[in-house]
Amino acid sequence: QAVKLRSRRPWPRAGAGSRIVARAGGYKVAILGAAGGIGQPLSLLIKMSPLVSALHLYDIVDVEGVTADLGHCNTPAKVVGFTGQEDLAGCLAGADVVVIPAGVPRKPGMTRDDLFSINAGIVKELVEAVADHAPGSLIHIISNPVNSTVPIAAELLKQKGVYDPRKLFGVTTLDVVRANTFVAEKKNLPLADVDVPVVGGHAGATILPLLSKARPKTSFTDEEVEELTARIQNAGTEVVEAKAGGGSATLSMAYAAARFIEASLRGLDGDGDVYECSYVPSQAAVPELPFFASRVKLGRDGVEEVVAAELRGLTHFEARALEALKPQLKASIDKGVAYAQQQP
Ligand code: NAD
Ligand code: LMR
């Protein structure tokens, strides 16, 4: 059976009359960290989604203003703001998708792993609340270091007895969005046609674009492969340096997260043809790595299939890069698991 290798429909234009008809009442999306650099534009994009009927915004600061502001947009989703830990239950009750962009961003000179000490605790607090109040929801983790925060979440959900590996995602869509943009620019291709799978993880050398699997089929010189791979791997740092202390990618990240949320909702809605890359708990692609970013098929219960076949027939460059990333990714996974297991 032929496998479609991309999420079929891009983010729909507002009012374009998507073919998808939302289930009665639409979906409830909760965004935790909604007043932040990513949270605000992401909330706006989700407010525009025809699939969403309720948008719950949570943050420890400033959420009232964001809620009042967004609430004036004449799109159907009803926006409700929540703040303070005691409000988490109300925010999360009945959520279909919970998105977590809460946490501190990098400054120049930092690695994503440098964020671990602060963000691990934030993710812990929020994932435990999701386990208690929205145990059946899809959980999208944006907070860095994604290579470790997703394993932390998995362990905590296990401890709470509500772990479903099909429903936990590290959001790596921005790597795909960047790869598509850079390849289209380099090879002068129409942007809307380009689709480059990005596998592995979400930090430095663990970000592995599979240029040999790019659609449309495109040939690259060895120099182009090296240059494009390095640019995609360092794109986050490119933004961190350009912002010069003002944070990391927010607008492109919001765009990418909105694309991933929309894809997930289409999957929940029964569209049988939704594929995106994501960092998921599965050993189907690389048996020795319990978490790995792969292209996945999204369905009514989250991940329906990991497209492991995409890792076959790699070029020498890609195969070497895959071998090289394994120890780094494994160390980040182990660090996250150890952190969660040490928690009281
Ligand atoms: P930001 O500082 O602008 O916003 C973070 C928000 O989280 C703030 O509003 C803050 O009040 C909130 N927050 C902090 N602790 C909280 C808690 N306990 N509960 C709820 N909210 C809390 O940062 P940002 O630029 O939006 O980035 C957020 C995170 O996303 C960072 O860790 C960053 O590294 C990561 N990020 C990931 C990707 C990716 O591709 N996965 C891309 C860009 C950024
Ligand atoms: C990104 O890729 O832009 C994010 O992971 C943020 C960062 O720190 O680079």
From TrEMBL:
A Pfam short name: Ldh_1_C
Protein name in UniProt: Malate dehydrogenase
Subunit structure, interactors included: Homodimer.
Domain Lactate/malate dehydrogenase N-terminal: 28-170
Keyword set includes Oxidoreductase: yes
The family this protein is said to belong to: Belongs to the LDH/MDH superfamily. MDH type 1 family.
The keyword Oxidoreductase is assigned to this record: yes
E.C. numbers: 1.1.1.37
Domain spans labelled Lactate/malate dehydrogenase C-terminal: 172-338
Protein's organism: Zizania palustris
InterPro entries: Lactate/malate_DH_C, Lactate/malate_DH_N, Malate_DH_AS, Malate_DH_type1
Keywords: NAD, Oxidoreductase, Tricarboxylic acid cycle
One of the record's GO cellular component terms: mitochondrion
GO MF terms, alphabetically ordered: L-malate dehydrogenase (NAD+) activity
GO terms under biological process: malate metabolic process; tricarboxylic acid cycle
Family matches, as CDD domains: MDH_glyoxysomal_mitochondrial (cd01337)
Broad class of enzyme this protein falls into: oxidoreductase
Catalysed reaction equations from the record: (S)-malate + NAD(+) = oxaloacetate + NADH + H(+)
Superkingdom classification of source: Eukaryota
